[in-house]
Design a protein that fits this description.
This protein is of the alpha+beta class. The mean pLDDT is 86. The radius of gyration is 28 Å and the shape is globular. The two termini are 20 Å apart. The longest helix is centred in the last third of the chain and has 17 residues. A hairpin with a 2-residue loop joins strand 32 and strand 33. It is 17% helix and 43% strand. The strands form 9 sheets. Strands 24-25-26-27-31-30-29-28 form an 8-stranded mixed β-sheet, with no helix packed on it. It has a 4-stranded antiparallel β-sheet with strand order 1-2-3-4, with no helix packed on it. Strands 8-9-10-13 form a 4-stranded antiparallel β-sheet, with no helix packed on it. The chain has 10 helices and 34 strands.
Length: 512
């Protein structure tokens, strides 16, 4: 269906299909843009005092008034050449600059590269000397014989990207204001921002590990560097200024600001640091975590700690005795690869075996969280209270990222995997939808349409029994069945075939 509407004072085209689309003229070009809204039946222009320019539409049995905003916005993409592989990045809130850490193993530092080039030139080998001066963007940095680490801290300006970019030979680029090479054989592993209670400045914390190896994981120590961003006296451009460095005994892999102090995950140690004149001052620590702390997240007085092999731990800081105490953990060992908070008591996570799960702190435990009388007892050689897993599902590939997002006006959990898959977990809004898709999933399982002959329920329960998740991929396979099989399933479900197809399409366009 096509309808004529008005957008930005000009005529536009509203196209309604499984999803609404808006066609309009922007900068003398016709642009067709999908609207982040559910399927509509009809539409027309609408104007009022509260909505000077909008669209009135009918969706099923309801009347909708839609305001179209942010037309003409597009994504810009630029390539910023880096010295090494980027590991972490963040946006500095007060300056708007982009801060990255880069590190690689086996690369030759600039002083060694220049010395080798000079030695080859002095020995009468100009071609060999030229190999050490090739552009690293095109040919890569020269490799070193020693397996040492090379790390950089970079300060970039992303603002020109919004305005179209500073154009170089290959298009728009983001300029680098400052590049700091960290000491030799130190691998930069963590990056964070912190504001201390007695200092209004925003400091940049960088964690490094010396002589780092992975098989087995070992290091001779680590360092926490604290930088501030200042203006260069000569040019006025922002640059890094080293405040001080603090040696530590483990790998500082996770940072988080906590009540005007710096919370650091050092291997199996969770430690609180305060700002000192020459180094960070140790204030409090807990050394009883199982293996290796990978993530630290602060929720008010509560600290959520993610361990490499033992899932989540809920920690409270007791100011009266200056202690970090674990009061809740998970009974299931999980090798965490990604996680995201859903609410104050609920967390979504993924492990390296391809499992997705949601765990929650029971309501009765959250009610007595502030009462430390029962914190001293141990349950199953762990914390006094246990979290419960309310969702379990085997994706089939290790998940690398989880993000709670709103797509098409509906909230969902997006995930990406190591094989490049992007998927979504969508929460049903009614019991009717749960029953409908649950029966459809059961009907599809009974077909036994797997190419390798494996039972679908056994596959989705490879490590843990699937719980409270309906496989959308299996339900969508209904649309690829032959007509006779579709009709048979529709009769078994006592539903019209058109209704089943429409519900499948509705769920799809809510996210896409």
């Amino acid at each position: 269906k096509l309808f004529k509407v008005a957008v930005q004072g000009r005529q536009a085209l509203l196209a309604l299909s499984t999803a609404p689309w808006l066609g309009y003229v922007h900068q003398d070009r016709f642009v067709l843009t999908p609207l982040a809204y559910e399927a509509l039946d009809s539409g027309s222009s609408f104007a009022s005092e509260a909505c000077p320019e909008g669209i009135v539409a009918i969706a099923k049995n309801s009347l909708r008034i839609i305001s179209v905003e942010r037309l003409g916005e597009v994504f810009h993409q630029v390539k910023a050449p880096l010295s090494c592989t980027p590991r972490r990045f963040l946006l500095h809130p007060s300056t708007g600059k982009l801060i990255t850490i880069e590190t690689d193993q086996g690369l030759m530092p600039d002083p060694e590269r220049l010395a080798r080039a000079k030695a080859e030139a002095d020995a009468g080998h100009p071609k060999a000397a030229a190999c050490f001066n090739l552009p690293p963007v095109e040919f890569g940095a020269p490799r070193s014989a020693a397996p040492n680490w090379l790390s950089f801290l970079r300060l970039m300006d992303p603002a020109p990207l919004v305005a179209g970019g500073t154009h170089g030979p290959e298009g728009p680029t983001c300029p680098t204001h400052d590049l700091v090479q960290l000491p030799p054989n130190e691998a930069a592993v963590s990056l964070g921002l912190v504001r201390f209670h007695d200092n209004p400045e925003e400091f940049v914390a960088v964690g490094t590990a010396k002589d780092l190896s992975f098989f087995p994981r070992s290091t001779t120590g680590g360092t926490i560097y604290l930088y501030r961003i200042v203006a260069d006296p000569a040019t006025g451009a922002p640059r890094f200024e080293l405040v001080h460095s603090t040696p530590v005994e483990e790998v500082p892999y996770a940072f988080a600001p906590f009540k005007g102090r710096l919370l650091v995950g050092l291997g199996p140690i969770l430690r609180i640091y305060d700002l000192g004149k020459r180094r960070l001052l140790r204030k409090c620590e807990n050394k009883n975590f199982p293996n290796f702390i990978t993530t630290v997240f602060v929720q008010g007085d509560r600290i959520v700690v993610g361990d490499l092999t033992e899932s989540f731990h809920i920690v409270r800081y007791r100011r009266d005795i200056n202690q970090l105490q674990v009061f809740a953990d998970n009974t299931t060992p999980r090798w965490l690869t990604a996680w995201c908070p859903l609410d104050y008591d609920t967390f979504a996570g993924a492990d390296k075996f391809g499992n997705f799960f949601i765990t929650r702190l029971p309501y009765e435990v959250a009610e007595i969280e502030d009462d430390p009388t029962g914190w001293n007892r141990n349950v199953l050689n762990g914390a006094p209270y246990k979290m419960t897993e309310i969702v379990q599902f085997y994706v089939g590939e290790p998940i690398t990222a989880l993000q709670r997002a709103t797509l098409g006006g509906f909230e969902c959990i997006l995930y990406s995997t190591v094989m490049g898959t992007i998927g979504a977990f969508y929460p049903f809004s009614s019991r009717e939808e749960v029953d409908f898709f649950g029966h459809l999933e059961i009907a599809m399982r009974q077909l036994g349409a797997s190419l390798c002959g494996r039972d679908h329920l056994a596959f989705r329960s490879s490590y843990f029994p699937v719980k409270d998740v309906i496989d959308g991929d299996l339900c969508e396979a209904f649309m690829r069945l032959e007509a006779a099989q579709q009709l048979k399933i529709a009769e078994d479900m006592n539903k019209p075939l058109g209704e089943i197809l429409k519900k499948l399409e509705d769920i799809r366009i809510r996210i896409l």
